[in-house]
Amino acid sequence: MNKNKSTLIGLFSGNKYSVLFLALMGVSPLTKAQNNPTITVGGKTFKDLNKNGKLDVWEDTRLSVDQRIDAIISQMTNKEKVDLLIGTGMPGIEVLTGPVGDSKQGLVPGAAGGTANLDRFGIPATVVADGPAGLRIAPTREKDSKTYYATAFPVGTALASTWNKTLLEEVGKAMGNEVKEYGVDVLLAPALNIQRNPLNGRNFEYYSEDPVISGKTAAAIVNGVQSQGVGTSVKHFAANNEETNRLTINAHVSERALRELYLRNFEITVKESQPWTLMSSYNKVNGVYTSDSRDLLTQVLRKEWGFKGIVMTDWFGGFPGFESIRTGGISDVVKQMNAGNDLLMPGIPAQKKALLEALDSGRLSKEVADLNVKRILEYIFRTPTFAHYKYSDKPDLKAHAEVTRSAAAEGMVLLKNADNTLPFGDKQKEVSLFGVTSYAWITGGTGSGSVNNRHTVSLLEGLNTAGYKLDKELVELYKPHAEKEAEAEKERRKARGILALPERLSEIKMDDAFITKKAETSEIAFVTLGRNSGEGGDRVVENDFNLAAEEIEMLDKISKAFHAKGKKVVVILNIGGVIETASWKDKVDAVLLAWQPGQEGGHSVADVISGKVNPSGKLTMTFPVNYSDHASAKNFPGEPSDNPADVTYKEGIYVGYRYFNTFGITPSFEFGYGKSYTDFEYSNIKTNSKTFNDHLEVSVTIKNKGKVSGKEVVELYLSAPGKTIDKPRSELKAYAKTKELNPGESQTVILTLNKKDLASFETDKSAWVAEAGRYKILVGASSSDIRQKAEIDVTKELLIEKVEHILPADKQFKDLKFQQ
């Protein structure tokens, strides 16, 4: 790719929210909403929203919301409609676009934008803000001594790895409380795109390679956030599975793969939580920008799934790249409106001008505009801002720190624990703490998924607070190095532009004699390996997915020295996404996948290491032996390789474990895998019927047969007959997490299968179909560790759901199939 072009695209693609932080630092805080004057009619009091001294129809709460909104729309001018359909602009926008003319300051500093106010109707401006790991707003404000920090929660991969819907709902409630108490109406989250490939730079925000765990994780978080009376915006809809050239990349995907993988997660979330809003993605699917796609936004989302909220674009969605804005290009606003993309974000004057001309001329029909306006008004009527909620600017950050601490610990995955190396609870014996990331801890990824939190607890701080006796010489060596490296990284990114991608911090070179000395005096070595990534770019294989030479050298030296003295070595992975583990995992005694666990991460790791918390997280994605083992590796990020315009999903439905398990490729750690400090026994599987009718209940008993209490994730996979349609060996269809089981205690878990769980999408029939035959129910501790089996029969083919074809192919290719 041309270097200048690459820089521009990187600047643009990453800048969508990061620029807000800088630009909004100087914004004055929002004056709290004041009580409106009131009007009394017939003994009943109403708010005079537009302060005109009379009761307008839309102010009359005796009428339905529908009637009130219709009354507003009937009196709106075309200009007012357009004002509502286009976002309010983004502070600092000129950094990206040149002088486009509109750069309104936000109501809440650091927020990502919002909708316009219409004073004539008493309609206030509403506020939307990032993000997936917690609320992203500016922590400081001009002429204001107060701080406005938010809680940095664990990243998406960490949250999903809990497999605990109840806990995730609690995380959502804490996030939602901060959203509401800081005066924001919608959290631009959660992000639930499928992890098609391990190098996606935003995989840390996403949940899984599987649509069931992804969809149900997102639904739990949405339900939690929205229980607080604020909204969410699930994103990025759809097939947004890479950051490279993300504004323009054309994803060629078969309808089957789309419906079974890349839409199924959104379907689950929409049906189980009804998010207030949904965000269309940047990319094209089969030649059509998603924000222009009526197939996606109306046919699938609204007609098939029953979505009731608004659709907003991703920031500058539908623009063909950064340069187009600078040279006066705009998105196809009429196509976006006709598709059902109600709100265009962040909104620029050129879009307003084009949309108004289209509405005045009839090129955009009044009916379409009114429908989109109505949906936006329905959203506004639900917001705290419309209700004049007096937010406090003081959410309970202390309580939320405890929520994030426990969620992070529960999402940690014990990948290896030879000879019960962990827990290590001896606070009297010395510990050697290696690895620059132990001291410069990574809270979360960069870009719109980051959070401006007050303080991050490093592993050093966490172990110190927990009372561990750390080797002082190592601490004194590492601390200044880590601070220097972190500062240099900060300056590097500052010099490269607002969304420069993070780089790995360099390790300290230590000679053998020094490490041998530590092995003599310390009982155990903890070695942290860190990785970070962010919005606007994808990861690479060398020195990122694979370990760097200096990291391999460090591990080799530490393992050799400590093992020579009969001491143990534990690796702690402070990472957001998958890395290579197969080549080095046998050199160490234990591996704890801590993820990027949010602001309390050091405490959370200490809780697990000490045994205060028994790890119960499990992988929601496959850790391969080699990057090239992934079916998508040959087609990522696309073609041409130096500046991809197209990416073809030739692997079809064979993503992640579906590919590894079906094609017999052994991973380093399989999907669903995770160890515990105790052992669980599975027994007594039962089904409530031998044949499938409308739904099926599967029960299985889990017993803690170890010596410490713990929780177990119970995973149900289904193996279909696969005679009439090509099918993976097995697919996750349901799961549950037990309560904390004491030694010897049992719990019977009930898992439910519905009709659609049995179905595949048959393109020729344009329908979800469950083929006739015998289905195997596989219940276990991972996708390959199956503990209990049962079988059920489907006596005749079931037509579950007939749908219309969507997004016809614009390129001919064949999906990968498994030949028996």
* Overall 3D form: globular
Poorly predicted spans? 1-34
Give me the Rg, rounded: 27 Å
- Termini Cα gap: 42 Å
Strand content: 15-25%
- Tell me the helix content: 25-40%
The average pLDDT is 93
Task: Going across the biggest sheet, name each strand in turn.
Answer: 3-4-5-6-8-11
Specify the oligomeric state.
single chain
Number of helices: 24
The description of the largest β-sheet is: 6 strands, mixed
What class, by secondary structure content? alpha/beta
Count of individual beta strands: 28
Would you spell out the secondary-structure blueprint of this structure?
Blueprint: H1 3-24, E1 38-41, E2 44-47, H2 65-75, H3 78-85, H4 94-97, E3 113-115, E4 126-130, H5 156-160, H6 165-181, E5 186-188, H7 211-226, E6 231-237, E7 250-252, H8 255-262, H9 264-273, E8 277-280, E9 284-285, E10 288-289, H10 294-304, E11 310-313, H11 322-326, H12 333-339, H13 349-361, H14 366-382, H15 397-411, E12 413-417, E13 430-434, H16 436-439, H17 459-465, E14 469-470, H18 472-496, H19 512-521, E15 524-530, H20 541-545, H21 549-564, E16 568-574, E17 590-593, H22 601-610, E18 646-648, H23 657-662, E19 680-687, E20 695-704, E21 713-719, E22 731-737, E23 746-754, H24 755-758, E24 760-762, E25 767-770, E26 773-780, E27 786-794, E28 798-802
Parallel strand pairs: 4-5, 5-6, 6-8, 7-9, 7-18, 8-11, 13-14, 13-15, 15-16, 16-17
Antiparallel strand pairs: 1-2, 3-4, 9-10, 12-17, 19-20, 20-23, 21-22, 21-26, 24-25, 25-28, 26-27
